[in-house]
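Supplementary Note 3. Input sequence used for the single-chain structure prediction.
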Amino acid sequence: MKKLLILLACVTVALSSMAGDIIVKPVFAHRTNKETNWGGSPDDIKANKDYKMTLVPGTENLYTCKIHLNKYYKTNKWAPKWGDTYAKNEGWSNVHKFACVNTDNIGALDKQGANDLGSAISAAQEFTIYNEDGEDVTFYAMVDAGGKVHSYCNKQKLMLLNGPIIGGEPGSDLKISEYFTIAAGSVKLKITSNMNYYWPNGGTSNSDYSVTPFGVGKATLDLKTFKFTIENNIFDTPLTVTSAGASTLVLPYEATIPEGVKAYTLTNTEGEATAIATELTGSIPANTPVLINAVAGTYIFHGTKTTWEKTEKTVGALTSVRACKYVPVGSYVLQNHNGKVGFYKVETASSVMIGANRAYLTPSVAMPAAKINIEYSEVTGITSVNTATIENDVMYNLAGQKVGNDYRGIVIKNGYKYFNK
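The predicted structure, written as discrete structure tokens, is reproduced below.
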């Protein structure tokens, strides 16, 4: 009986040692100023209800919370001399670093060595806030059998070496999927210096995981287990177009163009800050990077030929990307800046990542322009309006109907197509 009581006492102590809350821990944020919405002392962080995570219904060890975060916050380098208003100096940042931990073992706030992590399984991850008004950020944490806490948030970009970028909000099944091109007979996927996730074989995500054969693959992260599954030899590739109405795409096989989608190759004349779009019809040739126009939604591009093309190449002004990578300095990436869609210049090395099966614009010569606009070589899709009678500075939709400035989507203005958002 005495032995049984001792055993029960040991179990009680073990359980009580894991009785803390699961929270989001800001890392390298200012440690003492309570006015910031990102950071604070360890006691501040533990007491702040915004950081506390709750159990996801239907799960036993998955936690979540949502926090509205400002674009800029005071880093651990902040000092009163920097002031309380953002300015370009070392006391502020919009790159937020975080880990999820148990409050019983929070670890260090300003160090990320092996002995500083507390109950976190791995060093801090990061995400960037771009919206001047701040953004809602959803965090997820899984507690494994050993009590270690694994972390994910919907604003981070997980760069799988030789694979896709995983990010965004999971579906109702708590899964996130991205497609990529397996660029050789065998490639090795890896998330450098990140142990938060598992490969299908149980290895941690900072180790190599081999994938075969060549073709389109699909990586799916299940947040219930923080484990990836990898599929390959896929011929139906989905592309999600946002409200911006545009995306880029490249596939290693010839693919039919779905209904409601327009695909264009781009050319750039030397020294001009304009890319001319020429429409393709019927299908997109294998390994040909294109600009996609469509209303917001997900479209399936079906492969029509089984002959794979392995090499990345530049067609016109677009350069293909088969696995996620950093875009070279001086190139241009399709982005939506406050409703203005175009190709924006990459000014700094290792600053802009582009996802797998996408493309960036390579100008014919180096250019100083911060943005390259898109112009369409022909007005297509209009049947009820004679282009000769179109009024200058008046917008029409693709059905030829006059629309106002509040219309969202592709419009015709002065004989050219534009995005209106």
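Confidence is low (pLDDT under 50) at residues 1-17, 379-392. Residues 70 and 134 are 4 Å apart (CA to CA).
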